[in-house]
Amino acid sequence: MSTMLKFLVPLLISLLATPALAEFKLGFVNGQRVVNESPQAKKAKQKIEKEFERRDQELQQLSKRLQSMQENIDKNGMTMSENERKSKEREFGDLNRDFQRKQRDFREELNLRQNEEMAAIFERANKVIKQIAEAEKFDLIVQEAVYFSPRIDITEKVIKALGDGAGAK
Fold it and tell me: What is the domain count for the chain?
């Protein structure tokens, strides 16, 4: 991305300096704000939370069970017989491995779903950005910048348009 910026910045400066292009219209969209503030992003977050809520609760219960088992082993380990202590430690180890596996699977599936939802939001946002660009006669709209003037920031327009249903499937 920085290579592209190294190319675009001098190009933009030269274009803006050209008198024939005095009417050059540039816009900026903060993609992170769109993802955080758009109604679609909020709905997607709620949808994912609901979708993964049961599994998250199961992991929390399993974690509490592991903690209780560890406390029991620590507290009563000295008074248990050698076989009983080894059996409890083995049971704890098995349960802990199961917990680690389930937790890893949970995170992977959660990340996958979040990425799917974000991709759909970006796709809709890009449609809205294109519609705004065409309607308001923008020459260039960028989504990544080291610096941008608030004067060219159209992020709020994009979020509002997404809320109005523009760019929806």
Answer: 1
Q: What is the pTM of this model?
A: 0.69
For 107-141, write each residue's pLDDT tens digit: 999 999 999 999 999 999 999 999 999 999 999 99
State the Cα–Cα distance between residues 53 and 45, nearest whole angstrom.
12
| Cα–Cα dist 129/149, whole Å | 18
Enumerate residues 6+ apart whose C-beta is below 8 A from 77. 85, 88
55, 106 contact by CB (below 8 A): yes
Element (H, E) at 90: helix 82-135
Give Cα separations from 97 to 25, 52, 91 (angstroms): 58, 21, 10
Of 35, 9, 17, nearest to 147 (Cα)? Answer: 9
**Domain membership flag for residue 8:** no
Residue 9 placed within a domain: no
The per-residue b/e assignment along 133-151, b for 16 or more CB within 10 angstroms, e otherwise, is beeeebeebebeeeebeee
Q: Is residue 32 within 8 Å of 82, Cβ to Cβ?
A: no
